[in-house]
Amino acid sequence: MSGPEAAFQDALTARLAGDADVQALIGDPARLYDEAPAGAAYPFATLGRAVSEDRGADGAMMIEHRLTLHVWTRHGGRHEAKAIVAAMREAAHEQVFALEGGWSLVSCRAVYADAFRTADARIAHGVLRFKALIARQS
Questions:
Q1: Is the pTM of this model over 0.85?
Q2: Distance (Å, rounded) from C-alpha 89 to C-alpha 113?
């Protein structure tokens, strides 16, 4: 059985990678990586920081999990980064989707977004953070 963090990550990335609007912006198959391969084509997205906290009570196991996604663009600048962030938000914000491993998704919300230029002025960076509440299925 996988833990709640892995179950959420797998389900979220599958949801994003399967969304037509996300695919239109980062490819089909979607260029959504845990770690981008050397020479990855732009634009693409990567998984970032993941933080979990126990939110259980009265014997119920619940985890609040925050997962950050990073968007990297080379030619479309911040506008393209914002479009990708928006498509990802639309695909998963306030959606409930199935998790594996005996876990269920209670809620999923996009809680933070940003887009900015990197030190390499040719590359724009978008950030999108999801907060999920995950429970052990009874």
A1: yes
A2: 9
